[in-house]
Amino acid sequence: MALPNNRLLSLDAFRGLTVAAMILVNNPGSWAKIYPPLKHAEWHGCTPTDLVFPFFLFIVGVAIVFALQTKKTDPGNHNQLLIKAAKRGCILFLLGLLLALYPKFNFETVRIMGVLQRIGVVYFICAAIFIKTKPKTQFIIMTSILVVYWILMTFVPVPGFGAPNLEKETNLAAWADRLILTENHTWKSSKTWDPEGILSTMPAVATGLFGMLIGGILKNKEKSAAERTAWLFSFGFIAWILGMTWGLFFPINKSLWTSSYVLYCGGLASMGLALFYWVIDVQGHSRWCKIFVAYGVNAITVFFLSAVIAKTMGMIKLSRNGEEVNLHTWLYKTFFTSWLPADLASLAWALTFVLLFLLLLWPMYKKNWIIKV
To answer: Which residue ranges run through the membrane (predicted)?
Structure first.
């Protein structure tokens, strides 16, 4: 089964689950009381939350194959496809900048990089590579990126600090962020480095390329559905093992987006997509996934709106027990912390925030309204 315009239902469902998870982990009731499974790893390591963003970039890569495979067969279309990819990448980047600027619009301290910015950059680079190359070349590029990044991070001395290292403030990626972005335009929680920074975007591109290679397997009509599923599981399992093995000496780390992290997360994403594909598209058990599809077909829209609404609630001031608080705090303390333990209240708020978007997304899904970004 597939949605109109050759959309793969399992891919939309997998994307929807991922973007719902992105909203969930980005909107706890309180950042001081996050439900433990929704926390990021402190530095090295990988929690379920750390899987969410690479899963989305992996899906970006898979979707590129389904969107461009047929169109790229005619070389005469390449320039037009590249222009469209550049426009979409720029729109995503600018939407990310708009979120970073809102609501104060302070250009002197705006964070230049971010989630949507990274998605835009990864999308354009991966789309350009896909348009101009074949899978073998894409695999070579992906592998080369992972090896070069490993060499840079573990063998190149860090200017001003000396020996190469993977510590928060003194690694090469952090140095590059301070040099290029400056401390005024990095992540506000660190000021000295950015988890979506300049150098770490390079292996993030490799995550998108990993998704493209998996998308090529799914798109291969010469193989049966069972064979495609088996290949996805097999490649995913091998990548997962390689990621854990590489992680023994190049630790799995989301903020640095290490090469081991790319393989570890890409392997898990491949196996997850294989499961969705087998259950939904091959076996036809699709009724349960419609809620996820509703999120998936308008993923960027719902992610953008969730961030705007969260920031807007922080601007609106109300009085509670004689104290001025923002709308978020008023709602959270009135309806959640008043009867739930702190960590469960934080989880309940996040789940409610995610589910409320169904009031918007479900009618859009039923009417097949898709906002293309």
So the answer is: 12-31, 51-68, 89-105, 111-131, 138-158, 197-218, 230-249, 261-280, 292-316, 336-362
Q: What is the DSSP string of 199-214?
A: TTHHHHHHHHHHHHHH
Instruction: Please give the Cα distance from 313 to 202 (Å, whole number).
Output: 35
Question: Taking 80 as the threshold, does the pLDDT of residue 344 lie above it?
Answer: yes
d(CA 264, CA 261): 5
Q: Is the distance from CB of 88 to CB of 79 less than 8 angstroms?
A: no
Distance from C-alpha of 46 to C-alpha of 366, rounded to nearest angstrom? 36
Q: How far apart are CA 324 and CA 216, in angstroms?
A: 55
pLDDT at 6: 54
- Residue whose structure tokens are 């720029």: 90
Q: Which helix (H) or strand (E) holds 92?
A: helix 78-101
Question: Which residues are 8's β-sheet partners?
Answer: 2
Helix (H) / strand (E) containing 262: helix 259-276
Taking the C-alpha atoms of residue 208 and residue 89, their distance in angstroms, rounded to an integer, is: 13
| Identity of the residue numbered 287 | R
Tens-digit pLDDT profile for residues 290-305: 999 999 999 999 999 9
Q: What is the rounded distance in angstroms from the CA atom of residue 360 to the CA atom of residue 35?
A: 26
DSSP symbol at 148: H
Burial of 249 (0-12, 13-18, 19+ CB in 10 A): exposed
Task: From residue 205, give the alpha-carbon distance in Å to each of 123, 162, 262, 300, 308.
Answer: 8, 28, 10, 18, 27
| pLDDT tens by residue, 146-180 | 999 999 999 999 999 999 999 999 999 999 999 99
Distance CA 255, CA 327 (A): 31
* Distance from C-alpha of 157 to C-alpha of 239, rounded to nearest angstrom: 29
- Please report how many Cα atoms fall inside a 13 Å half-sphere around the Cα of residue 113, on the Cβ side: 23
The secondary structure of residue 277, as a DSSP letter, is: I
> pTM (2 decimals)?
0.95
H or E element at residue 21: helix 9-26
Q: Under a CB-based contact definition with an 8 Å cutoff, are residues 149 and 202 in contact?
A: yes
Confidence of residue 4 (pLDDT cuts 50, 70, 90): very low
Sign of the Cα torsion 125, 128, 131, 134 reads: negative
Residue 165, classed as helix, strand or coil, is coil
CA distances from 99 to 17, 43, 96, 112 (A): 22, 26, 5, 10
